[in-house]
Amino acid sequence: MLSLTQSKAFFIAAAVATLSFSLYSFPVFGRQQNLSPQKVEALKKQTQCSFITGEGGAVNIRRGPGNKYPVVAKLKRGDGVRAVTRQGDWVKIAARFSGNPPNETLTILNGWVNNKFINGCSEDQFERWRQ
Known about the structure:
By secondary structure, this protein is α+β, with helices and mostly antiparallel strands. 24% of the residues lie in helices and 34% in strands. The chain has a five-stranded antiparallel sheet with strand order 6-5-4-1-7. Strands 2-3 form a two-stranded antiparallel ribbon. The chain is globular and about 35 Å long. The chain starts with a helix and ends in an 11-residue tail after the last strand. The model is unreliable at 6-29 (pLDDT under 50).
């Protein structure tokens, strides 16, 4: 039988291993990722190029689709994002991008923005998140 000290050490080791696996499997919000070209292409195929709009200050990016969720980041007008889907008046964001292909950098961003603060990048997709 394990002693109390051994039990605590085992529990801590298990918790660290679980956390390490979680961080590896599910990228942490806002952490710049060195994604392989294959992962970048897969992310691009699953998302829509979009950008943040809004007058003046920063736009709140929230943990969930609604004002009741905490703010996880603030983006400014013109920031590029990769959006996934719309739920009501809220758009889910998977990543933030900077630069232009082939030197585009993606930062994982798991959050939601009100659809009045986001537009599609191309003219044919500009109103995508409002329709």
